[in-house]
Amino acid sequence: MAYIKEERYEAEVTEKIASHVYEILALLGEDPQREGLLKTPERVAKSLQFLTQGYGQDGGEIIRSALFEEKYRQMVLVKDIELYSMCEHHMLPFIGKAHVAYIPNGTITGLSKIARIVETYARRLQVQERLTVEIRDCIEQAIHPLGVAVVIEATHTCMQLRGVQKSNATTVTSAFSGAFLKDARTRNEFLNLIGNR
After folding, report:
1. β-pairing, 125-126 with 76-87?
2. 86, 129, 188, 192: which has the fewest Cβ within 10 Å?
3. How far is the C-alpha of 183 from the C-alpha of 108, rounded, in Å?
4. Within 13 Å of residue 135, how many CA atoms lie on the same side as its CB?
């Protein structure tokens, strides 16, 4: 697939990240040479590369790889798309789901492409607010629909494990364009559909 960077861990990059993780372990008071930590720097390096692989992907190209002419002009909704991202402020995970809808204007895209662009933008250091807008804008620019709606619900481990330590707090963000922004009935239809579990 041309739109996804080849899945490999470049040895030089892995080695550089691992050397810094080694130093961090030592600064935390650990012994990076003890048996349980010997391979930790390399594992963390590869994990970070996987968790941020979205930097090597192009959301617009993903959508454009599966475009089809279609006269359908009603809402297309893909809901409950699992997402895993990392807060750019603390580099701790936030986990949730995205609900993404658009109203075609003569062109549709493959349903799996909607989930793929959520994954592409989530697999970067993020804030939930920007992630929500990036998904909306990607669809908007790639297929020029009559409107796009995105709602993300997520829990942030940076709030659960440190700081205020509120384990039940959920953050909800939304971004609308076109018909979803201008027409309350269309927006409410979307919100009702994602509210029905």
Report:
1. parallel
2. 192
3. 21
4. 36
Q: How high does pLDDT run on average in the chain?
A: 93
What is the C-alpha separation between 120 and 164, in angstroms, rounded? 29
- pLDDT value at position 166? 78
0.70 exceeded by the pTM? Answer: yes
Tens-digit pLDDT profile for residues 129-184? 999 999 999 999 999 999 999 999 999 988 888 888 878 889 999 999 999 999 99
Phi, psi of 57 (to 5 degrees): -120, 155
Tell me how far CA of residue 129 lies from CA of 1, 93, 126, 153, 182, in angstroms.
29, 15, 8, 11, 21
How far is Cα 139 from Cα 83, in angstroms, rounded to an integer? 17
Residues involved in catalysis: 87-90, 128, 156, 158
- DSSP strand E in the chain: where? 67-69, 76-87, 93-103, 107-109, 125-126, 147-156, 171-178
